[in-house]
Specification:
By secondary structure, the chain is of the alpha+beta class. The protein has 6 helices and 7 strands; from the N terminus they run αββαααββββααβ. Strands 3, 4, 5, 6 and 7 form a 5-stranded mixed beta sheet that branches. A two-stranded antiparallel sheet has the order 1-2. Strand 5 and strand 6 form a beta hairpin. The longest helix has 17 residues. The protein is globular, with a radius of gyration of 19 Å.
Length: about 240
């Protein structure tokens, strides 16, 4: 059994006791044991209503392109929210997390409406992306924090949350519609100051390197554009 299969069995075994839900919710059109029939129960009840309002206010799309949270018990988006959302108004906890991420960071800084934001993107589209919609059709980061380093400068902290992801070996260079994705990011990749250096940019269009590339460019351009007056980023 691989890790994903092990975790799937684990959540199925604990599902009834933890969620009081019998499963068999729909995923890709089929009933699944590892998907709750009541998706709302997938969010911890201590944050549920606040999370739903946060997503509504910020017009954030739920994974995978839905208008409401998924009942999938292996969803990374749900795991990220259940772990970090409660820290949005807890500077002491946010400080501890960032100080353990890097000893160069001294404290957390309030961002937009808390010390942690979710499905965050830049103020303008990345490269030639056509949208700044949070959560879909743009490069969005799962969790986003801001820190002050020991020099007193602001540092953007970009958090990509993984749980049981696995990826095919297929190149994503060409979209289903025929768009060459390299053209979307070419100008940023060919910039002499680009943080991504490669002799063949087409090699970057395999997951998870494709995500790492886009998120690295996101952090770099946000700092270059002086968003939040930050001088550096940490991915």
């Amino acid at each position: 059994m691989n890790y994903k299969e092990t975790q799937r069995e684990k959540v199925i075994q604990s599902r009834d006791n933890i969620f009081r839900d019998s499963g068999e919710g729909l995923y890709r059109g089929n009933a699944r044991e590892f998907v709750l029939s009541n998706p709302m129960l997938n969010l911890w009840d201590g944050i549920r209503e606040d999370v739903l309002e946060y997503f509504r206010e910020n017009k954030i799309t739920w994974w995978p392109g839905q208008a409401a949270p998924t009942g999938h018990l292996l969803s990374s988006q749900i795991a990220c929210l259940n772990h970090l959302y409660a820290l949005r108004q807890r500077k002491d906890c946010a400080d501890s997390i960032l100080q353990n991420v890097s000893d160069t960071l001294s404290e957390s800084v309030f961002v937009d409406s808390g010390f942690v934001e979710f499905e965050k993107n830049g103020a303008s589209p990345l490269g030639k992306e056509k949208s700044c919609h949070r959560g879909s059709h743009s490069t969005s980061i799962d969790g986003f924090m801001m820190a002050r380093n020991k020099k007193g400068e602001k540092v953007l902290v970009l958090i990509e949350w993984k749980y049981t992801e696995s990826y095919p070996s297929k190149s994503l260079l060409l979209s289903d519609s025929g768009t060459n994705r390299l053209d979307v990011y070419r100008e940023l990749l060919e910039d002499p100051h680009s943080p991504v250096i490669t002799t063949n940019p087409e090699d970057l269009f395999y997951e998870p390197y494709y995500q790492v590339m886009r998120q690295t460019l996101l952090g770099w351009t946000m700092v270059r554009n002086r968003e939040y007056d930050a001088t550096d980023w940490l991915h």
